[in-house]
Amino acid sequence: MQNIKEKIQKGGLKATPQRIAVYSTLLKLGHASADMVGEEVKEVFPSLTVATIYNVLESFVRAGLVVRRFSSNNKMYFDVNTYEHAHLYDKDMNTYLDYDDPGLIRLVTEYLKSKEIPDFNLTDIDIQLIGTFKERQQHILKK
Predict the structure, then answer these.
(1) Nearest alpha-carbon partner for 80 in 56, 57, 53
(2) What are phi and psi of 19, to 5 degrees?
(3) Tens of pLDDT along the chain (143 residues)?
(4) CATH placement of domain 86-142
(5) Are the CB atoms for 66 and 78 separated by under 8 Å?
(6) What does the radius of gyration of the chain's CA atoms come to, in whole angstroms?
(7) H-helix or E-strand containing 35?
(8) What ranges make up the beta strands (E) of 22-112?
(9) Measuring CA to CA, which residue among 141, 59, 39 is closest to residue 95?
């Protein structure tokens, strides 16, 4: 709990009980939408609305504590892992799984650094592999 409080404060935010609950829930879920976080948080804060949770998550994005993920079902997910990594996205289940492959990231980064894309300023590289998990249950539990 203290680590979460310190992390929120290092992001320049006040560590309110609601923010701590939202961040703790996101740590538990990994990649989650505001609705998913709301379902988990409502036991502790039943009056906390999804809109408020979304605003808290957006404040975390601005503070660099989480990253947005856009899914093919037009839902925004938030990723608590801000280190450099790729994602596996199951398009049928709309779920994400972190995919740590430094070689892939290095290969793509080096390739794009050697190219100049006309009239485009590259600021970030986001690698997302899209498909479906062969054995869903195992991967859903790892989210």
Answers:
(1) 57
(2) -65, -40
(3) 689 999 999 999 999 999 999 999 999 998 999 999 999 999 899 999 999 999 999 999 999 999 998 887 788 999 999 889 999 998 888 888 899 999 999 999 999 988 888 999 888 888 999 999 887 655 444 44
(4) 3.30.1490
(5) yes
(6) 17
(7) helix 34-41
(8) 31-32, 67-70, 76-79, 86-90, 95-99
(9) 141
Amino acid at site 3: N
| Lateral strand order in the sheet of 67-70 | 31-32, 76-79, 67-70
Determine how many CB atoms are found less than 10 A away from the CB of residue 122: 11
For residues 102 and 53, give the distance between their C-alpha atoms in angstroms, rounded to a whole number. Answer: 33
CATH tag for 2-79 (out of 1.10.10.10, 1.10.8.50, 2.120.10.30, 2.60.120.560)? 1.10.10.10
The structure's pTM equals: 0.80
The pLDDT value recorded for residue 141 is: 44
Q: Where are the domains of the chain?
A: 2-79, 86-142
Q: Are 15 and 8 in contact (CB under 8 A)?
A: yes
Structure tokens at 44: 């502790």
